[in-house]
Amino acid sequence: MIYSRNELPRRVLVTLIVIALLTFSHSSIRRSLAADSRKKESPDSQTFKVIVDLVTVNATVSDKQGAPIKNLTQDDFQVLEEGVPQKISVFKIQVLPGIAVPIVTKPGEAAAANPVAPLARKVILFVDDYHIQFANLYRIKKAGEKFLRDNLGPEDLVALITASGQHSTELTKYHEYVLASLNSLNPNIRTTGKGNNLAECPPLFDTQAFQISERGDLAGDPWTLAINDTIQCANLQNLQDAAAIAANIVRAHARQRVAEMSDDSKRALASLQTLLRRLRAIDGPKKVVFLSDGFLLLELTEQLEMAIDSATRSNTIIDSIDSLGLDATPPMGDASTPGLPVSGGDFGTRMRMASDDRSSREDPLNALAVDTGGKFYHNNNDLAVQMRSAVDEATFTYILGYYPTNTQRDGKFRKLAVKVNRPGVRVTARKGYYAPKGEAAFEAEKNADIREALESAQNFNDIPIALSLNVTHDNLPQAAVSVQTRIDVHKIHFQKREDRNRNTFTIVTIIYDASDHMLDGKETRIDFNLTDPNFKNVMQEGLVTQASFRLGPGSYKIRAVVRDAAETKLGSTTKAIEIQD
After folding, report:
1. Can you state the angle between helices 383-392 and 134-150, rounded to 10 degrees?
2. Mind listing the pLDDT tens digit for each residue in 433-448?
3. Predicted confidence (pLDDT) per residue in 380-390, tens digit
4. Going by DSSP bridges, is the β-strand pair 157-162/122-127 parallel, antiparallel, or unpaired?
5. Which of 52, 106, 251, 304 is most exposed, with the fewest beta carbons within 10 Å of its own?
6. What are the structural domains of the chain?
């Protein structure tokens, strides 16, 4: 399940208790090999604190015909950050099931369709109703209906999520249930009268409003056009100071438009990131089909990067579809439209501005797709065909992870380049990323991951864990309960630096009563800084931590969450316990 209606009260409680745990953290560890080895191996006896900034890059590699190349190894890739080669520490291959999978086994060999029957797919239709106009939403409904009826197999799981949260369904095989929710979609109230049309006065393009409001660009065609349009639509022609009045109207309207755009873009990206974080609890690869008219990124580059990062960590590929399709209508009317200037110069300016505006609005959609290993579909009015293409085509993605040689947490943009040592191939990967800002960013991400795992109705399985309980009745009114969390570390990557194997584990254990209220919780943090012999011991024996509680008679649930720092993987599980009188 992606969303659950009864999670909101629990979300508040989880947030409060995690804050308390992180403020008053204490640990109880049965076997602390990490701590013992740290004391022995660190002459200064200082606690080794792991702040890991693993950079993950999704790369697709295709031949000249566009067929994916599937026989590459880690040694075939090179990743450069600001021109400096980086050591690839994580190498994985992710395959999303599709209808026909072209396969290339050797260099120069022609691609062939895979005759194997398609596997069940996990598809989430994400509708950005903050930015979709009414007419385009109608087209999405019709296209979505055709897609749901004709292009999904009986075992395929599909969900519908809207950015505004008005509609959401769980991943389900009951496609008619999703269709009913799709047909009930309504446009966001702000999109009905907005969007470069004559309902506004003045009718501003998004980029035009941004230039005027944020950059103070009060010269050139965008400003002149806005003044002239305002004089016309506000009927200021007969006023002596018409231009001054129009200028005030334009500035005020531009500020309002930019504030609304910023708010809508923040909400859309936040909703997408929430979805992607929740998808971490769903096993296997997923595909999100992001449907939007496009939007300006404004000052939200960091939020976009966070969404892309969340997609990578949840094994999710995003395919973006520009729901505007092909727009053959002249922007904001034509020479016959009453109330607007009719000069050829104005019309040419509008066409140029419309083209620039469309390109800027498409940029975030393209980044979401390319940087997660997906595709961006645009300039096509057949939305149903684009939905089908996004889901039917299997995606073969190489996931490359590295620890930057530049360890500064300065928040600056760093250019990336991915190269493959094979001629005649095309590599698609993200062009760069923004470095995190200080230790606070790392801690905030960790806390958010733990909260998400505690709130989720499903278990996270990236880190296999198991709970065992021991109850002791003594002379005290409450029984002593020992909760042991056994962690299987075989699937976890350790950072190798300076001949040491490094990682940090955070284990949170929470006690719930029979009414699902949280009663108590403890956090354990283990910093690994191991030589190879000690690392081998950890791999062989695993890791067991212990947390102790006092509980009276009754029924309880115990939930444990484990998170590592090297790859930010999560594991969680729940176990019931009954305390007798």
Report:
1. 50
2. 888 887 777 788 888 8
3. 989 999 999 98
4. parallel
5. 106
6. 5-51+439-579 (2.60.40.150), 55-114+395-435 (no CATH), 122-193+230-392 (3.40.50.410)
